Amino acid sequence: MESRVKVLGHPLHQILLVFPLGLLATAAIFDLVYLVSRIPVWTESAYYMIGAGVIGGLAAAVPGWVDWWAIPRGTRAKRVGLVHGVGNVLVLVLFALSWLLQRPSPGAPPTEAILAALVGVVLAAGTAWLGGELVNRMGVGIDDGAHLDAPNSLSSPSARGSARAAGDRRVARAHAYAGVERRVTGSAR
Q1: What are phi and psi of 26, to 5 degrees?
Q2: 3-state secondary structure of 178
Q3: What's the pLDDT tens digit per position in 23-44?
Q4: Degrees (nearest 5) of the Cα angle 21, 27, 30?
Q5: Are 118 and 31 in contact (CB under 8 A)?
Q6: What does residue 7 show for φ and ψ, rounded to 5 degrees?
Q7: Which of 143, 13, 1, 158 is nearest to 72 (CA)?
Q8: Could you give the 3-state DSSP secondary structure of residue 6?
Q9: Which of 59, 44, 63 is nearest to 4 (CA)?
């Protein structure tokens, strides 16, 4: 299933999600460093990262929801996508709660603020795994014509075309595959 919201041929959701995920995970790590060191600059930095991460998460959610609406009903991908999306909303709520609790004193946050961030980052790891399941296992967000010799996304709007020039008659060497093919091709199992 091809992504509905793309930039230069790549899904916008997958482009944007790295920023909030990185910021929020780093904020949780900085909060842990603060708990060990009691040096306020760590949690003050985490406070600003959380603010930026929540904003980035909201921006990444929009194309994610657009792509989710395009997944056919009754499929496993639709169910996994719903859990992924709702889980990520909960992640943003936990980090927003952490941010609000830290707001009066970012250099000396209450334990609840740090706890909310730590629970949020653990939940984010689970929802990230679900996102990987959607993309890598179920092909959500992948160009419908994707293949190993697909043309560059800047040179062709779709991966369906051939990667070779029209006059190029070179024969590509087949690579032996030693693994087990898990994709269903053709009739249903």
Answers
A1: -65, -35
A2: coil
A3: 999 999 999 999 999 999 999 9
A4: 140
A5: yes
A6: -130, 120
A7: 1
A8: strand
A9: 63
